[in-house]
Known about the structure:
The complex is a heterodimer. By secondary structure, chain A is α/β, with parallel strands linked by helices. Chain A contains 7 helices and 9 strands. In chain A, helix 4 runs parallel beside helix 5. The radius of gyration of chain A is 20 Å and the shape is globular. The model of chain A has no long low-confidence stretch (mean pLDDT 88). Chain B has helices at residues 12-40, 50-62, 73-78, 81-112, 114-128, 136-143, 147-171, 175-183, 188-210, 212-225, 231-240, 244-272. Chain B is mostly helical. Helix content of chain B is 77%, strand content 0%. At the A-B interface, strand 5 and helix 2 of A face helix 8 and helix 9 of B.
Amino acid sequence: xxxxxxxxxVDYAVRNRxxxxxxxxxxxxxxxxxxxxxxxxxxxxxxxxxRLILGQEQPxxxxxxxxxxxxxxxxxxxxxxxxxxxxFPDKTVLQNVIFGLEVAEFGLFNRWxxxxxxxxxxxxxxxxxxxxxxxxxxxxxxxxxxxxSGGMQQRVAIAQALITRPKILLMDEAFSxxxxxxxxxxxxxxxxxxxxxxxxIVFVTHNTYEAVYLGTRVVLLEKNAELGGACVALDIPVPxxxxxxxxxxxVREIEHRDLAVFA
Amino acid sequence: xxxLTLNAKPGRIASWTLSWILFAIGVGAYFLVAxxxxxxxxxxxxxxxxxxxxxxxxxxxxxxxxxxVPQKLPARFIHSMLWMDTVASAKxxxxxxxxxxxxxxxxxxxxxxxxxxxxxxxxxxFFDKIIALSVLPILFIAFGIDELSKVxxxxxxxxxxxxxxxxxxxxxxxxxxxxxxxxxxxxxxxxAYRVILKQILPRVLNSIRLNLKSVMLFLFAGEMIAxxxxxxxxxxxxxxxxxxxxxxxxxxxxxxxxxxxxWAMRRANLKLHPWFTE
Lengths: 263, 278
């Protein structure tokens, strides 16, 4: 799916005061299969950008087009992995992962049919396979999210989002709460998953290194004093790489630009 | 000794012993007073002795109200005043609890669907401020003095609290959860019931547990003012004859029943929601 942002602006109404501009004149085209990392300082509108693509929020001006159409609701085409609250705490790991398959076929009232039980067995098999790909043991399947570590929880969250085969996966600081070692593992996992699933991924982070390591393209959002809001300050492709050292120049370029704001 | 410090760690036996001291003092003081009063007047009814209360309890719990009841123990208990009063009160209590289910459902919709909220919330907030007991005369006029008005008193007294609590709990579910459910293809009602209601249910049950005393309070008020049976009716009736030897066992029985209900709800909550930790 092609994501196209045209002259997008977002203002938040503030009571009794002039409205606050978050984004201004954002133009961005994301092609199918790309892995876009969005970086920028805290409060520069990274998450807002993600919510716009998700359809959770609408732009105050301009348009957000998904395959040429404006969509103002989150739907099954766009998966979502937030930093916190990504799993349903009342459901086991397995129930969390099959949730997306289940609700697509069964409503609230047709869950007492034999067909439901047959399909559920198939869902569970698929879910266990997906969990396996994410590096989880089948013994973890019956645990509740609160019994898992943060890294495990995010593995489940990715499995849960990917099992419905969304065309776009949106991740908001998904690894930011993890310790460095786990974070590293998760980054490698995500790169592998992205290559295998051919999903478009938009990954928001405040860690430049993570952004460059993961993405095929890095977008830097930056507050622009003239425009009032943030816009795309840098949009650079990342070369194919295996080793961390290969991407050092790109990281340095982005950080140089990012730090220049304070100069 | 670091007794009055914040980080004191009393042992098991010590804290067990300490927790019963006030009970011992209370019971001891009671019987001391009872003994003294009975020395002055053996017929004293205000502070009955253990023997008097045993007799009162036996008359209440084991003496059938009707004739020709078999003399076996269970039958005698089932036809006793205490049991029949308990059943009468329990029926009203259960009706009130049943009517809390629609209250929770309403609260869920008010909290999750903005238009439903816009329609109901202000009215419920207004309703919540009405003192239930102040509308008791209106209820008696409108619904008569039979069962309906007593159940309505409980409903008016307790449901606004439960509804508002459910509203707040459903609004407290993180936005991420709802967005996530939408991206997984869930519809509005699937989210309301399978994501939000399921998550808030243990907290709703706890909120109902906290409100059990209000339920009983309104039940007792209704029964004391207009009723011909029920635990509170009996207590009010016995007051006229200074029947303290039966009133005290009744009060303890009610406390015990309430404790049982609360305990059962707590156990059910733990069993139904193993994931819930608070």
